[in-house]
Structures are given as structure tokens and as C-alpha cells.
Amino acid sequence: xxxxxxxxxxxxxxxxxxxxxxxxxxxxxxxxxxxxxxxxxxxxxxxxxxxxxxxxxxxxxxxxxxxxxxxxxxxxxxxxxxxxxxxxxxxxxxxxxxxxxxxxxxxxxxx
Amino acid sequence: xxxxxxxxxxxxxxxxxxxxxxxxxxxxxxxxxxxxxxxxxxxxxxxxxxxxxxxxxxxxxxxxxxxxxxxxxxxxxxxxxxxxxxxxxxxxxxxxxxxxxxxxxxxxxxxxxxxxxxxxxxxxxxxxxxxxxxxxxxxxxxxxxxxxxxxxxxxxxxxxxxxxxxxxxxxxxxxxxxxxxxxxxxxxxxxxxxxxxxxxxxxxxxxxxxxxxxxxxxxxxxxxxxxxxxxxxxxxxxxxxxxxxxxxxxxxxxxxxxxxxxxxxxxxxxxxxxxxxxxxxxxxxxxxxxxxxxxxxxxxxxxxxxxxxxxxxxxxxxxxxxxxxxxxxxxxxxxxxxxxxxxxxxxxxxxxxxxxxxxxxxxxxxxxxxxxxxxxxxxxxxxxxxxxxxxxxxxxxxxxxxxxxxxxxxxxxxxxxxxxxxxxxxxxxxxxxxxxxxxxxxxxxxxxxxxxxxxxxxxxxxxxxxxxxxxxxxxxxxxxxxxxxxxxxxxxxxxxxxxxxxxxxxxxxxxxxxxxxxxxxxxxxxxxxxxxxxxxxxxxxxxxxxxxxxxxxxxxxxxxxxxxxxxxxxxxxxxxxxxxxxxxxxxxxxxxxxxxxxxxxxxxxxxxxxxxxxxxxxxxxxxxxxxxxxxxxxxxxxxxxxxxxxxxxxxxxxxxxxxxxxxxxxxxxxxxxxxxxxxxxxxxxxxxxxxxxxxxxxxxxxxxxxxxxxxxxxxxxxxxxxxxxxxxxxxxxxxxxxxxxxxxxxxxxxxxxxxxxxxxxxxxxxxxxxxxxxxxxxxxxxxxxxxxxxxxxxxxxxxxxxxxxxxxxxxxxxxxxxxxxxxxxxxxxxxxxxxxxxxxxxxxxxxxxxxxxxxxxxxxxxxxxxxxxxxxxxxxxx
Lengths: 111, 878
Hints:
The structure holds two protein chains of two kinds. Chain A is of the alpha+beta class. Chain A has a single domain, classed as Winged helix-like DNA-binding domain superfamily/Winged helix DNA-binding domain (Arc Repressor Mutant, subunit A, Orthogonal Bundle). Helices cover 67% and strands 14% of the residues of chain A. Chain A has four helices and three strands, in the order αβααββα. Chain A has helices at 2-23, 28-38, 47-59, 83-110, and strands at residues 26-27, 63-69, 75-81. In chain A, a hairpin with a 5-residue loop joins strand 2 (63-69) and strand 3. The longest helix of chain A is centred in the C-terminal third of the chain and has 28 residues, at 83-110. Chain B has four domains: 3-61; 124-325, no CATH class; 330-504 and 738-876, no CATH class; 521-722, no CATH class. In chain B, the strands form three sheets. In chain B, strands 13, 14, 15, 16, 17, 18 and 19 form a seven-stranded mixed β-sheet that branches. In chain B, strands 2-3-8-5-7-6 form a six-stranded mixed β-barrel. The longest helix of chain B is centred in the middle third of the chain and has 37 residues, at 376-412.
């Protein structure tokens, strides 16, 4: 089960992170929580996976970050989508939808 | 941005990253506490779930940021940590590299001193020897004084041309008389070399011939640093000479062929004859002139002078850099250089192998880092950094090893060979060129062994997929190492066999219980031939009377050490023929004393005196060359003998027609050395032709060396003014002759063994690694009932598969290389193979046996360990 998730993540992790951040700027811990909630605990992100991905996206200019006071009053690093990140997310989502449809068509035909 | 600013930013970013991850951890812990878990336990669980904080930090850092210095420093820290963690690996790797690099630097320094920069003069590359070339195209060592003068006066391409003549001088007064190697030199020789006297002055053109310069060594030994020596008078060859100066220490001049540097310097005595070729000529090129231009000019000068007087008919002049003439044995040097290069190559292959083994052990670590996002480039760079660290360590240790080895090499070098004389006298130093070589060797090593593992490690997917995979690269490395080691061992083995063959050479006479000595009489009493004949006769009588001496005989050139003059002769008759031979002057009973067979006729007797009919003896080689199938007894031979008479007035030269009848033919003996085949020899009785010096051979009852003191006393008794030199046993002479060879052989042998040891380490590493990967499989086999020796057998079979290709390549390689070498160094005195072919089966077989046994032992040790291991432990592994 774990392996399946990793396989899935390898292709889609970036898109999921961008999607989570698209609604509002949030810190790493909140992103992990949000993805867990939204997927009904299917995605339990390992931090060793999440943070490298966040830094990578930031380097690519898809995310920007800033230190704000968090809900607990402690400073945390909040990530937000850049314009480039939004365009990237849209393109990725479009591709993803097309792929889902294509896969569904194939699977239905096989029945 | 400057680097410290970047470092500062880097530091801040580090803190930020740590804070970010810390925040996450704290929130997770808080969440768990809220769910009702104890604080401690919550923190622990959060940490577990979070994974290693370090690793996460590292992966984040790896995200394409931080190029340049900081990340390099980080690689460096990581590399050092890795080295500390794997102490055994690091030690073996650095030691292997240090041995290879150290040996290279040491030998490179040695060769630089001996071969490439043998002359410690400023701009030594400008110095050239000039050889006249005769009509037949043969370059001659010496030329006449008039010819030298014409070159010197007309030449523009040479800044200065000097001439000199090597000689031995008799020095008397201020202690017992000694015979010392010396030089007659033109006044411009020392300035040309760039040597300034330490005391007094150099020769000047108006000095005449009665002045002398002393070497520093002679000044120290005989005159105890007497600073008032200048102006004093010394007896040299029986004549008064005024000391005009002392040369500085370490004044270097190429030693004569017996390895003796000049200690007495006298002016050249000009001889107006154009036939009297006695001067060696040395020139320093003017700045910016090529040797080719100079050769053309000198040749033109020689051609012009042809019209001036009848001879000499020169066809040209040959120029050779003095650096090249100063040493023989260049082939030996290159062989040595090749040997150390092999050792370095083997060391590098070994290291590459070790790194591959280690890379395999770290496969998982690297693969995980790769999956977590570290780029291939980053991983490859990390590995290269680690290799650089290893190379640096190995290079530094190698440099230290070389520095320690050099004084040892200088001490070990046999002093009396021209090849090593300078090393022994002046030592070897790590010089600038050597340092550059060391750095180059280190860098080449890094590239050689660094690329393969880095390239392999940068393909992590492969490592994750397959647990066990065979590796052709490693097999290739081991085979190559094995082949190189075999070639080196076989080469050293060939030299050893050659030396043994040389030791058993039939020299033509009995060498046991034989003591040799040399006397060099000079002074008024010995200026005339009769006086010299008289002292030789007296010495022989006295030596024969010594208790413990069975026989004694005289010969002007002690066999195996030198030959005397080579001269022409004519065989008169209806069709006169010309020939040439070495002329030796001997006493009666020589061949009986030496045990050389008389083939025909008789030996000389005391009756062959000054007024008796002139006689000679010849050896077998001469007889067969000029009278094949005939009996030469009673034939006559004619020769022109140039006789020099030294009297109080100076030196006079006379040409004397000589005719002698052949009265005896003797067997051949080796005159020049062990590996020089017999030449045509002609023997004259000393009573008829007393030579200027004489050697004596004593057949002793006991150990010959024990007689030295008695011989010295006896000679002092009869002629205290005559110096006695070189009292040594014939066996010691023979050992000295092979000393240079022995030394080279020891070095080559040491490198051969080093190579074998390194190759064994390589095989050990590979075998241990291969078996380590099969621990699980071996456990299963053992559990299913395989015996220990079956496991060992299986492991050995695998080792055999590694060794066999290397063995085949090594045998083929050594056959090819030895054949090539024997062509290249053919005729090289120091290094010629003697009495053994380049594909000698015994040598190849024995080096193969040595290497294969070492390899099998290296493979057996891990095999035995694997077989002994408890199967259950082995099964639990992994």
C-alpha cells in the first residue's frame, strides 16, 4: 500500500502541494494536514518528502515564502502560489483531467 | 557577492531551515498530546514519523541551491566524516596510493639527478662535447691541440670552447705519495663551467705548466684545510708545481670511467703535432644559438683547416650535449621509470577497485539519497571530493615516504659506478620538478580511479533494482593489475637471471685467492725506461718473497678492470696487413700465475731483457683473427710506439718503430669487464717496454684481503716514494663491477614485490567483497549440507576466473615488452641482458608461480572465513 502511494506521489506530489497552497498561504505542517484531510488520510506525507518538494518548488519559482506569525503565535514559514505557479497548476490539472478521462475510457472498454 | 557574505547568508538559511522543520515537529508533538499521549512518548513518535532531521535538512539543502564554496565545504565535511567512519578502507586506500606515489617521486628524483640533469652547472643545456669525425664516419673522443685552437679562434656560435685531458697523477710531499685522478684543463674550462676557486685564482693563459689547482676533498684530506696552501710547492709526477688555488666543495666534473672525480687540476700542455689527438673538447653555446647551427659552423672550420696541413682528414664534427655524455645507462633509467610507473598504475587500479567495493557497500545510501532528490551531479561531485581527499592524503604521505627514501637510496647507491657516483657524493633532493611530478601523479590518480566509481554510483536506479550484479569493470581492473605485476616481476626476474649468468661467466683465469694492486712510479728515478723496469723487477722479487704469497706476476692493466692502449700494428710480408690490438705490458710467469692456458710457444722469461731480441705474445682471439688455421709462432709484427719521456726539462715525445717476434699464444681472458667478450690482446715484456704504471697479481695461500697490510709495508720498504693504490682482491673487483647492476636489480626486485603485494591486496578485496555479497547464499548451501571445503573450492574457482585473464594478458605483455626492451637497450652496458633470452621460460614460470600463489592466498583467506561462518548467522544476515 505504502509503495503505491509513493508511486502516485512521484508524479503528482507537486500538483497536490500547489493545489493545497492555491486556496491560501500556509506552512508545511498545515499543507501536510490539509492533504491528509482532503484525501481522507490517503496521503500521509512523510516530512522527508514534503520539505524537499517545497524547497524545490520554491527554487523553480512556483512558490514563494514568507515568515509570519502562525495560529499558535509562533513564527512559521508560509508558502504561497506565484503567478507562474498558478499557471503551472492549471496546466497540470488540465493534463491530469485529460489523463483520468483517457484511463477511464480504457478501463470501461475493457469490461 | 563575496564568499564570506555568501557564507553568512548560508548560515542564516541553515537556521531558517532548522526552525521550519522544528516547527513542524513541535506541531506534530502537540497534536499527539492533544490525542491523549504522554509528552515524552509524543515527542518520540513525532520524531520517528518525521525521520532523521539531519537527512531532511540535507535533502532540502540539496535542492539545487548552494553551489560553489559552501557546498564544496559541505562535501568536504561529509567526505571527512565518511573517511573517519571507514578507517580500514581509508588506511588501505591512502597507503596504497602513498606507496605508488612515493616510489614514483623517489625514483623520479633519482633519475632527475642521475639522468636528466646530471650536471650541476648553470644552463647546463648549453654545454656540448665536440667530437671530430674521421673519414670512415667514426666519432673520436679526442682531437689535437692545433685543431682545438682553430675551432676556438674561429667559432662564433660558441661563446667559449675549452679542452681537457683526463689523467692520473702522482702526488708526493706532505705525506705518503698517492696516485690521484686529475685533469689537465685549458684556462677557460672552469669559467666555462661557471666554477670560481674557493681560494687563490684560476689558471691564466700565461701560467706555464707548473701550477696546480686542488679539489676541495684533496685539500681537506691531505692539507687539513690549510689556508696558506696557495703559493706552496707540491711534487706532482716528480716535478715541482706551485699551488695557485683550491676549488669549492661540490665542484662537479664528470668522473672518468672508473668513477673517480678529478682531484688535481693542471694546465693543458700544448703539443703542436696535428697527429697527437689527446684533448677532449667542450664548448658552451652562445645564447640563442642552436646546436645544429654550431655543428655546421664547426664542420666548416674543420673543412678549412684540412688545407692547412696534411692530416687529419676529418669528415665532420659531431656535437653531443654534455648531459648525455655524462652518464651511461639511460636504458636502465627508463626501465626503472617504467617499473615505478607500473607500480603507480597498479596502485591506482587497486584503489579504483577498493572504491568500487566501497561504492557497492554504499549503494543503498547513495540510492536513497538519489530517490529523495539529490541530483546525480551532486552525488558524483560528492564522490569526487572524497577521492580528492584520499588522493591528497595519499599524495602527502607519498611525498613524506619519498623524502624518507631518498637519503636511503643515496646511501645504498654504489659509489664507484659512473652512473651513481654523483648520487653517492651529492645525494638526491626533492626538487621543484619532482614536486610538480608528484602533483601530476596525484591528479592523474584521482582522475583514473575517481571517474569509474563516481560514474557507476551515479546510476542509483540500477542499485535499487538488483541486489547482486556482476561487474565487468572490476574484473578488468583486477586482470590489468595482475598483468602489470606479472610483467614487472618477470622483468626483475630476467635481470636477476642475467646477473647470475654474468657471475658464472668464464673470465678465462682463476679468480680465487688473487690480490691485485697498482703502482704508479714517478719522479727522476723513473723518468727513464730502465728505472721503471728496475722498480718493477724489485717489486716482483719482494712480493714473491712475502710469506703467504705463492706466486706473483705483473701486468700493466689488471684484467676485468681496464685495458691499456689500443694501437695499430702491421704484419709485414708480400701483402702487408694492418690490424689492431690492446697492448699490455707484462712480466714473466703471468699466465702461469693466473692459470691461463699456454696454447703454443712459451711465456716471457727474465732473459727477454732490454738488449735481447724483441718478443711478444698474443691471445687466441688475435691469433684466430689474423692467422686463422695457421701457426703464428715465429711471425713478426711491426708497430709505431709513441713514447713519452718525462725528464726535468719537461715531456718529450718520440715515435719508435718496433718489431717483435711472436713467441707464445695464450688462452683468452676478459680484460674490460665481465660482460665484455675477449678482444685481441698483444703482450709485451716490461723489460723491453716498461709501461708508466704497473699492476701486480698475487696468488695467496689464505684470504687475499688479509695480505693488504703486508703488501703495503713491503712496497714501502723498497720504494717509499712510489704510491701503491687499489689493493683489492679480484673477487672484490668483480663484485664492484656488478655493484651498479646489483643496485638497479635490488630496486627493480623491490618494485616487483611491491607490485605483487598490491595485486594481492586487490584480489583480496575483490574476493572478500564477492563472498560478502553471497553470505546469504553460502548460508543456505551450508544449511543444505554443503561441506566447508566445497564452499572454499567454489570461492577459489571464482578467484581463478579473476586471475586467469590477467595471467594470460600478463604473459603476453611481458613477452612483448621484454622483446621490445631487449631491442631498445641492446648494447647498453648497465642493463643488457646477458646469457638469457627475453622469453626465458624459467623466469616467466617462476614469476607466474610467485604471483599466482600470492593471489590464491589472497583469495583463500576470505574464502576460509566465509566457509567457517555459522550458517544460521549467515541466514539471518540481510
